[in-house]
Amino acid sequence: xxxxxxxxxxxxxxxxxxxxxxxxxxxxxxxxxxxxxxxxxxxxxxxxxxxxxxxxxxxxxxxxxxxxxxxxxxxxxxxxxxxxxxxxxxxxxxxxxxxxxxxxxxxxxxxxxxxxxxxxxxxxxxxxxxxxxxxxxxxxxxxxxxxxxxxxxxxxxxxxxxxxxxxxxxxxxxxxxxxxxxxxxxxxxxxxxxxxxxxxxxxxx
Amino acid sequence: xxxxxxxxxxxxxxxxxxxxxxxxxxxxxxxxxxxxxxxxxxxxxxxxxxxxxxxxxxxxxxxxxxxxxxxxxxxxxxxxxxxxxxxxxxxxxxxxxxxxxxxxxxxxxxxxxxxxxxxxxxxxxxxxxxxxxxxxxxxxxxxxxxxxxxxxxxxxxxxxxxxxxxxxxxxxxxxxxxxxxxxxxxxxxxxxxxxxxxxxxxxxxxxxxxxxxxxxxxxxxxxxxxxxxxxxxxxxxxxxxxxxxxxxxxxxxxxxxxxxxxxxxxxxxxxxxxxxxxxxxxxxxxxxxxxxxxxxxxxxxxxxxxxxxxxxxxxxxxxxxxxxxxxxxxxxxxxxxxxxxxxxxxxxxxxxxxxxxxxxxxxxxxxxxxxxxxxxxxxxxxxxxxxxxxxxxxxxxxxxxxxxxxxxxxxxxxxxxxxxxxxxxxxxxxxxxxxxxxxxxxxxxxxxxxxxxxxxxxx
Lengths: 205, 459
Ligand code: SF4
Hints:
Bound molecules: iron/sulfur cluster
Order of helices and strands of chain A: EHHEHEHEHEEEHHH
Largest interface: A-B, 54 and 73 residues
CATH superfamily of the largest domain in chain A: Aconitase, domain 4
CATH superfamily of the domain at 295-457 in chain B: Aconitase, domain 3
Shape of chain A: globular
Strand content of chain B: 15-25%
CATH class of the domain at 295-457 in chain B: Alpha Beta
Number of helices of chain B: 15
Radius of gyration of chain A: 19 Å
Strand order of the largest sheet of chain A: 4-3-2-1-5-6-7
Strand order of the largest sheet of chain B: 5-4-3-6-7
CATH architecture of the largest domain in chain A: Alpha-Beta Barrel
Oligomer: heterodimer
Largest sheet of chain B: 5 strands, parallel
Number of strands of chain A: 7
Distance between the termini of chain A: 33 Å
Number of strands of chain B: 19
Low-confidence stretches of chain A: none
Radius of gyration of chain B: 21 Å
Low-confidence stretches of chain B: none
Helix content of chain B: 25-40%
Mean pLDDT of chain A: 96
Largest sheet of chain A: 7 strands, mixed
C-alpha cells in the first residue's frame, strides 16, 4: 500500500445518495485480472460513464474536461452501499483517486478503502452538500486532504476537520503492511486460540 | 464480605464480540474468526496470499464453494457460459485444493450458494464469528452467529491470520410484534423494515431482530431477514438462538455431537441478550401492519405494499424503471420472473412458490434456481420440481444465477423482472434490466399472471 500524507488535487462532486458498488464497478468486470499492467481504472462508473456504443457520455461528471484530473471525489450519504466488491476501490484507486469524501460510507467499502490507501473522509451532511455545490459552481477547484492534520482544506480558507481512526491513520501515514503487523502478533493469536478452543470445542475444527 | 457481583446486562452481540477480542489497539479490536467461507469470486485474495508467499493459517476453519459463476443448466465447469467464467470456477477449485480447504465442488450435491451452504452444513453455529467476501454474509446471524461481509484484502488477512481488525459496531434492536398480516412473509418483513429505516438506516450497526414475529419465524425465514440487513446498511443481523435454532442445527454434518452437543447447547442458551441490555437505537414495527411488499425503484428502500401506487419521487429511479407516478403497482406487467438467490432459495421458499404455481401456467419466462444441491434434492423428493415444470417454470441447478448474472444468466436491457433476490440496483440483473423485489409466492403469482399481483387476491 502506498503511504498517504497530504494530497492536493482536483475534486469532483457526485450528487446521488446511496450510490451502490454495482454502479461504481459493474459485476461483469469482477472477473478481470489486476496487476502486471492490468488495472481497473477504465471500469469506474463504467455503465454511467459510457454509452452502449462505448462513446463517453458527455453529461457524466468525470467526463467533463474540468474534472478529468480529479483525484478526490465528494459523494453523498451511504456511499458505496451494496456488494462487498473490493474492485470498487480498485476502480477508484486505478483511476487516480486517493480520497473519497461523504457524510457516510457503507462499512465494507470504508474498510476496503483503508486497506488500499484510499482515505475515506467523513464530513457532516451539510458540509458535503456545500462542497459539492462549490465544486459544481467552480469546476476544477483543488482541495487538500491532509491526513496528518486530519483536515480537508478548501481554497479561500475553509477548513473541515475529519477523523480517521488512529490505528489506520498511522498505517496510512507510514504505509504499514497490516497483514505483516498482525503476523507479528501471532503468539497472542495462538494463545487466544488455545483458550478459545479449549472452552468451546465446537468452535474448533 | 463482597457484594454479589452484578455484571452489566449485555446484548447477544456484546457477548459474541467480547468472546472474540484477541487484543485491542485504541478503537481497533483484533477479532478472532471462527469460520471463513470463500467462493469463486475470491481470487484476488488467493493471488495476494500466494504472491506474498503466505499460507492459509487454519484451513480446517475455511470452507470453499463455487456459487457466483456457476452454470445452472449443468454441473461441470465446462458448462460455463464463457471460457473466462469457466476459469473463475476452476481457479477456486485449484486454490482450495492447493491449500487443503474443505470444498463443496460443483459436482457435489452439497454445493450451493455460500449463505445457504453454511447453515445447511452446520458450518454456521450460534456464538461463532463467521466472515465471507460477500456482503450477504449477514444472513448467518439468523442462527445467532456474528457474521459479516468483507473485502478481499480482509479475506487475505483472515486466510493468513484467522483474525481481522474491526471497529466495534453500534447495536440496533428492531422489534416486530404481533402476527404478520395476510400473505406477508419474512421477505415482506425485511422490505418493510428497509422501507422504514432506509438503505443507509443501519450503517455502522448490527441489528438484533426481536419480538414475536421473529420468535415464531422458522430459521429459513430468519435467514431471509438477516440476509437483507445489509440492504439497510447494517454490518450484520442477528436473531437470538432458541429451540427453533437448535432443532435446525441438530444433526447437521458439522454440528457438535454427543456430549459436545450438550456443552454447546448450554453455552448457546446463555447467548440471548440479557434483560435490560442497552441498544444504541431501537425501532419497532407492528407485524399486523406488514402487507405483501414489492419494490418500485432502484434501491431496496423503495418498497411499498402491493396495493399502493407508484409514488411521485426519485425521478431518476422512475426513469430507469420506466414507471409513471400514480400507476397501480398491480398494473405493472413483467417480462420475466426469477425465483432464487441467497435471500429466497431455501426449501420453504420453493414450497411457497410451488403452492402458488400448482395448477397454473406461467405466461412469462420463469426461472427457479434452488439454493443448494440438497435443497434441490429435497424439493424433488416433495415433487415441487414437477409442479414447477407443469406450470412451465424452468427448474435449474443451484447457484447465484440471475441474482447478479455474472454466470451469464442476465436479463435483457429494459426487461422487467420480478425477482426474489435482494438488490434492485441499476444494472444488477444485467445492463438496463428493471428489477422488482418480492417474496417467492408473489414472484410465482407474477409468473402466472404476467404482472405484479396481490397474492391475497389469488385463490
Ligand atoms: S445469491 Fe446474489 S446476493 Fe446472494 S451471494 Fe449470490 S450473488 Fe450475492
